[in-house]
Each structure stands twice: as C-alpha cells, then as structure tokens.
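Researcher: Good morning. I'm working through a list of sequences from a screen, and I'd like to move beyond sequence-only analysis. For each chain I'm collecting a predicted structure so we can compare shapes side by side. This is the next one on the list. No need for commentary yet; just the structure.
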Amino acid sequence: MTTTSSLSQTPLFDLHGELGAKMVPFAGYEMPIQYPMGILKEHLHTRAQAGLFDVSHMGQVRLTGASAAAQLETLVPVDIVDLPVGMQRYALFTNEQGGILDDLMVARLGQEEFFIVVNAACKEQDIAHLKQNIKQGCVVEELADRALLALQGPAAATVLARHVPEVAKMIFMNITAAQVLGELCYISRSGYTGEDGYEISVPAYKADALARLLLAEPEVAPIGLGARDSLRLEAGLCLYGHDIDIHTSPIEGSLLWALSKVRRPGGERAGGYPGADTISTHIANGVQKKRVGLLPKEKVPVREGAEIQDEAGRVVGHISSGGFGPTLGKPVAMGYVESSVAALGTQLFAIVRGKPVPVEVAKTPFVPQNYYRG
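Model: Good morning. Structure tokens for this chain:
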C-alpha cells in the first residue's frame, strides 16, 4: 500500500490503470468505480459469468489465543465459541446502546486462530476495539500486508478450481488455507453479490499476479465499485454507514437472522455482548422502525436520503440505499419506515425532486441468491 496525497492505493492500483478504470475516492482509497465495459454490463457479466473485484481496502485481522473465541464472543451477538474450524460467519460489533459499530466476517482457521474481515471505513476503529477488549493471552494482528480479491458469479467455482482444485469441494461460508502461486492464501466461499463465489486473501506482493491469472480466464472480467453496489443492493445486502449504523439496532435493521439462537433471549449463552439488554427488548417488544425492501412503481431511481411518505403525505421514513437494478431492469431501494407501514405490499411514496414516486414494500433479496450449499 502506498499513499499519494491523502488517499491510499491498493496493490492493484497500477493494474486498474492498465485496464482503463475510472478511479474515485472511497473509504480513504483510490478505487475503481467502473471499467470501460461500464457499470450495467459489469453487473450483468457478474450475474452471468464471473467478475473480479479488488476489495483490498477492507481490513484483515488475525486473532489468536486459547481464549480467542470466548473473548470475541463478548463483542458480538453471534455464536463464536461453537463456530467449527473451516467455517465463516457474518457478525456485528454492537455498542452499549444496541447500535451497530460495524458488520464483519469471522472465520475459524484453527481451534485458536480466527480470520476477521472488517469494512474499510471502520477498520481503524474496529482494530482498536478488538485490541482494547481482547487481551488475556490473545494477539490481535492487523494483516496490512495482504490484499483481498473477490471472484463472484456462476462461473467462479469453475475458474478458481482450474488453479486451486480443492475449492470445488467447498460450500457457502466454508474457508480454507491453500497454496496459490506458491503463497498461503485464505479462501472463503462467500461474497457480497448474492452469487456463488470466493474471497481470496493473498499476500500483497502476489495480488497483481493472482489478479492477472484470473483475468486471463475467458469467463472473468474486472468489476468496479459501481456494479458491486448494484449487485449487493439487488441481493438485499446492507452497506454499513448507509443501511445500518450506530443509530440502528440489528432488529431495526431486519438482521435478527444474524443473531445466533444460542445468544438470543432464552438461549444457552444469551446476552453478554454490548447492548444486549436493548436488543433483547427489541426482540421481545418490537421496534418503531424497520429496514425494508422497496420497489419503485415508476422508472425513476430513488436515492439515499429521499423522504418516504404515506398516502396522507405524512413522513414515515427515508431511503437508505437506492438505484437501478440491472438484473430486474427496474429501480430498487431499501429504507427505514415506521413499523406500522412495514408490511409487504404497503403502498408508500418516495419524494424525488419534490415529486412523489409510488413505492411498494417488497421482500428482499430482489433477485434469488445463488450461494452454493452443496
């Protein structure tokens, strides 16, 4: 990682230039928003074949120690203690008010070794949070010398198995350590598009070679942040700082599924994480607002921040993410609305440039998830 002006660059910065990427500032990095193919075609290519994403701006952390699982479990409402070796789980850092500090992926590489991926914009605070709260006999180590690539789409398994045959046997949320180009890589069968695919943690100095190896495959095209956002939005996946943040609890964010049953009220290891009392109350009594999917009824994209009104013109919420869904061929959005109008099929209005655009509360994901579960 090198720095020019105030922005950092990933190990693939020069490759992005070669590929004709349009670069933009994102989470403190110069990142590709799109390539010459364009966002629409990049999105559809990922759904049809395989897209390669540079996600090296994300934070990577290794956590080791005999009590690593027990200590990490005090920070998240998720079952870490019983997470099997070779499996990964979606998790949330919560604060004392029950808000979400960040969402992250936690993988168990060994009995006393965890691999954690956190969001780029939150990585400094997340690593400080881990170091402050996980101590006794444990080591929190930022893996700043590693890059992260995501290979996503229905052809991802075929492509990667040509070079790393063992990945074909993996199922969704498996993780393995494997030799790639002579280096130890951590490969998980997961991603942020709703498609089958992999995320590959590779030593930074080998990232360029790995990216070129994968891009040489006929099914693979480079994909930028623009299509990454439209893909995750169609898949109903949250973007931290937009769809979830410190002011939303997991229940308000419609993320009850992410709270392991063993950690919920009545579970064997219920509570014991920041904000557990508030979140337990939300589970028991419901919440005032909820994140919902929204389908605009006109071909007008509704954007983040737009007000949502009911049929009487009363403000009942706001859009948290919105844009065009290329797979569906129409606009899609997510937002927060009062629970009284959160039922599927409820007719509401998003205010776009002062005009009401009809929207309907809809089920997410907007397109079927294609994760490989074996």
